[in-house]
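Re: [ENG-882] Designed sequences occasionally contain unexpected residues at chain ends

Forwarding the minimal case from QA. Structure tokens:
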């Protein structure tokens, strides 16, 4: 029985680890930057009102969100492997091909010790 091996398509390969790590760091830094802006606005915006509380809640919750998103990795955009073999037409089946008899080589060994 012939085992077919499905090679992954280039478009279905996952993102390189270095690229994924840099993407996660950028996403974390962006979220923490927004948190810093929320904290500064919470302190500087006068008079205090409901937006002060909104900025304070954002400054308190965004570190948790930043860590969860940074640790999520690329699980959310997982791509299934696509096999190009499915789109190619298969060659003729084994039933169509003529059956050849295998070549057999026979070796005869005899003891020749001079007796």
């Amino acid at each position: 029985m012939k085992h077919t091996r499905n090679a992954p398509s280039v478009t279905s390969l996952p993102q390189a680890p270095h690229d994924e790590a840099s993407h996660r760091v950028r996403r974390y830094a962006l979220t923490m930057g927004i948190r810093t802006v929320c904290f500064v606005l919470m302190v500087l915006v006068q008079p205090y009102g409901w937006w002060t509380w909104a900025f304070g809640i954002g400054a308190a919750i965004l570190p948790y969100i930043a860590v969860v998103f940074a640790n999520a990795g690329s699980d959310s955009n997982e791509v299934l492997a696509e096999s190009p073999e499915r789109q190619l037409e298969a060659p003729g089946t084994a039933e169509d091909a003529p059956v050849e008899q295998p070549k057999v080589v026979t070796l005869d060994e005899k003891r020749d010790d001079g007796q």
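QA comment: On inspection the terminal residues look reasonable. The mean pLDDT is 78. Proposing we downgrade this to a documentation issue.
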